[in-house]
Here is the input.
Amino acid sequence: VSILLLTQMIIGQTIVDYDQTWTIDQIYDGDIIIKSGVTLTVDGARVGMKKAKSIIVENNAKLISQEGKFDYAYATSYEDSQEKWFGIKMQDGSSLEMYASTLNNAQQAIRLDGDGDILLRNNVYFNHDLTGMKLNMIDYNNSNIVVDVYCSFFDCTTGIDLFGNFEKFEVTRWVSFYNCTNAIQIYKDWDDDNGNEPLISEADFHNCDYGIYCAYSGFKVENCSFDDGETAIDIEDADGVELIHNTFNDQSFAGLASYGSNFFMHDENSFHYCNTGVLAMDSYSNSQFSITDQNYFGFCGTAIDVSGVDGAKNFEIIDNILEYNEFGIFAEGSNHFDIQVNELYTNDYNININRSGDQKNNVGCNEVSNSWNGLQIHYFNDMTDFIGNNFVDLTTDDVILRESTLNQNIGDNLYPAMNSFGPNSLDILNLNSDKFKYWIPKNAPDNLDPEGIPESWKYHSDFETTNKCELPVNIPDDIDDVTINEWKEEFCYYWEIYKYNPDNELAKELYY
Here is the structure.
């Protein structure tokens, strides 16, 4: 039975010039125009549209849909038709509310040109649309766009395409994107600093090539999940991007790819089975970013790849957990960074730094264990503070230097840098100075050789953790023996004081 036999055909253009409620399924041969000042309510009815036809909502007009169905006239609800109706065209100053409704097989299911208000709530579905929502708000700042509570985009080339500024843009509370090429695209008018940043919260992205793409803008993403895609979040020349407590799984290129952008990732984002967890690149040295506060990277090809971030602004990789990755932190041609207080376990390679510039760097208080090797520095300058790191149970070398040196501030014969090295691996490979010596831990044997550690001490039963640490050749007479944990707590704490307050007397005493 054909659809045409079940519904009435309305021939020609339909003008809605007074408030109406539609409850009967109908097919429309021409455009539907809702005139200014008028409200059209679709209550449980199907609105079938011919190819390329539109529903036009004029200035100060309003369309409300409760369980309405808007689709191409000659396709069933979830059939992917090659021919599409155009969609709902909203003019400047118009409004749209939809609840438990569907928009199927449209070129641009919802298109807004100018300021407008859109509320989509409670199971609004987009199916097989080329673009679900096309929002053109250039030179405008007063739009309010809310998509929330189990709304979904299925098999759309682009789910939401946002260009311009707005008063409010939120995608929240269990909104889902399935099999979209680009789930959300955000472009902001970079000549206009007005307007707010988008919020994307508690949304799910499944099998989308790109979850979120953003240029020249900022946005906040929290409590979202990205599964089985190519790149979950791709940002270019973006500013003020914030990521909080998101999950990234099985991304064939990257969980986050950042090009010349400023972003802040904190509070337990997690990356699993991604080719690269975070890729940050910058050819113009404008980036400033931080990856902090217990983000997790596991089973990735490279957990964090920082390439060409080499400028006056610093970036931070602090207090993260990286395990079972091929590469942990890889910094190629980057400098002015802080890599601190990270836990790196069972990665093939943990921290690799290659060809840096002349800005100040810090590699400190990182815990590295059960891996092939710890820290590699290749073709690097001497502007790196290396302090308070702990290397345990590495297969080959704790630290490898190739045509590289470390900053003099790492320690001298009077004030040590206090790095700790494991008993079974070579501490420093290709070291060109005698700065790295051994510290005498508490309960060390009396027959300690000042030039090395005797075999009897390496496997001493009194030592629960690592046995070898860094200290000068001429140990001052008044230095106190402390345990490994006491050492880590004391020296890492005062190093933080020194970093933020170089004039602190105790910090100066420890590190000058």
